[in-house]
# Entry
Amino acid sequence: MKTHATVDQYLASVPEPARGTLIKVRTAIRSAVPAETTETISYGMPMFKYKGLLMGYCAFTKHCSMFPGPAVIETFKDELKNYETSKGTIRFPLDKPPPAALIKKLVKARVEQNERKKRR
# Structure
């Protein structure tokens, strides 16, 4: 797997239709995170960080994925029933991201988790 220095470099390397899908995912995540959230490349993929790792996303050969963590997936399992999920991963088609409203809910839940962890 090629490592990229920036999220924009990563996205530029992703072929369509996955690139457009990931741009929509990125836009939805950005719209729901606190202002002090940063974007970086971590584990070879775009990652948002806010009081720790918040959410990553990336493209694979036959699907795209988001990585909100296992607790978020469990919390929203009914809303995620149309997606393939595993421990901390949501998989979706290369050309069809989850609805922005759902992504925003997942992000807000992760923000709350990270804020609770930092208060302890």
Summary: The domain at 7-96 is CATH 3.90.1150.200 (Aspartate Aminotransferase, domain 1). The longest helix spans residues 100-119. The chain has four helices and six strands.
